[in-house]
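$ fold --in a.seq
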Amino acid sequence: MKGDLFSSEHMVQPASAPGMTVENSKCVRYSVNGEMLARQGAMIAYRGRLQFERKGQGVGGMLKRAVTGEGLPLMAVRGQGEAWFAHEAQNCFIVEVEPGDEFTVNGRNVLCFDASLSYRISTVKGSGIAGGGLFNSVFTGHGRLGLVCEGSPLVIPVSPQYPVYVDTDAIVGWSAGLETSLHRSQSMGSMLRGGSGEAVQLLLQGEGYVVVRPSEATPQKAQQH
């Protein structure tokens, strides 16, 4: 068979490295030799001797997910082979988490990760009840974390001299060492007179990086995630 579809641009080549690699801008390949974890429903193809198992979070995790809406619906992938992961044709990226690192990320942006990483669901400090329930997943350990993002993300340096304000619907994640709090940019009076409507942002201060996607979740998207 011939045609552009069968060109080297689209043809899968032998794996060049074990573990997680970016296959293309919309897909992550994982060469499995043991175990890894991924969001449920993200596997689009596989080959080899692999088993897929829904991973329970325990009673506490299920309760926290019901309350926060943030818990990661995960599946474990075990065996030997290759699997490809994607989500709604969003752009894919890999984060290297090293010992001592701590990366906080919105659950909707998690695609897959090494079993050597651990995660916990945490309340965003400073958000409180007024934040509408700002809960993220905090990853620690040593390994790779695959992320998805609508569009090309912005990685913005944060320093004590230059704190960053981010729309809560646009934030993807941030590095350790940053302090968070809610910031109200407008008074109720200015909003009634026709302000932008962006009344509350997440303020990040300290030394590190914040990752932002170039879009905001629509009500329908927010409910789906």
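$ fold --in b.seq
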Amino acid sequence: MQVRVGSVRGRVVQAVVLAAVLGGCSQSPDGEAKASGSPSAAGSAGAKSAVAARGGTVGAAGSACELPVSFDIAKSWKPKGIDAEKELSKASKGSDGDVNGALADAFLRQGPVTTACEIDAKPAGKIGFLRVWTGEPGNADARTVLRQFVAAEDNTSKEKYRSFRTATGLSGVEVEYLYTSKLLEETKKESALAVSTPEGPVVLHLGGMDTEEHNAMLPAYELAKQTLRAL
């Protein structure tokens, strides 16, 4: 059976498909520390943004997700490492292996990167994930990787790219854009960033059930971005 991966990517990002593929996908954010500037400006180019209270760190050896970078995660958010190859192998078995394998591939791979970690906002009372994607070492710069990542999602528009530099000295590129689900006939805002490391590119992506939920989770994304450092 032939399955067009591109035709299912939009569905896979919905929680119901995620649950089918991997068996799993809001109380106000307690103790949020706000940087100078209005919270309503969070995510706007050139504006200061609200930053969530720190709840831990991921990325280093021995953490929930071992990555080429480390960063702080928001209070109560729960990280979980993902072995993409293991999940792909598991999904490809059985009578519906072709379909499940294509769905898993569409969820686990996006452009030049593969899912390595997901940080669940549900324990903090929100619906969504901050996901980390990693790629193989190569010559592609962070902006190229990020453009390929967004293009692979399909049904995106109004992309706004900009460069950033963290206090730790790490440089990267981030983007805000709109994603339209043909399945739900809804459009929502999403955010992502990419950095280059000696071990390959790393992409952090923040989705959310809808734009309102996305905006409510932006302080967690800002915390991750501002504390991002290469290992």
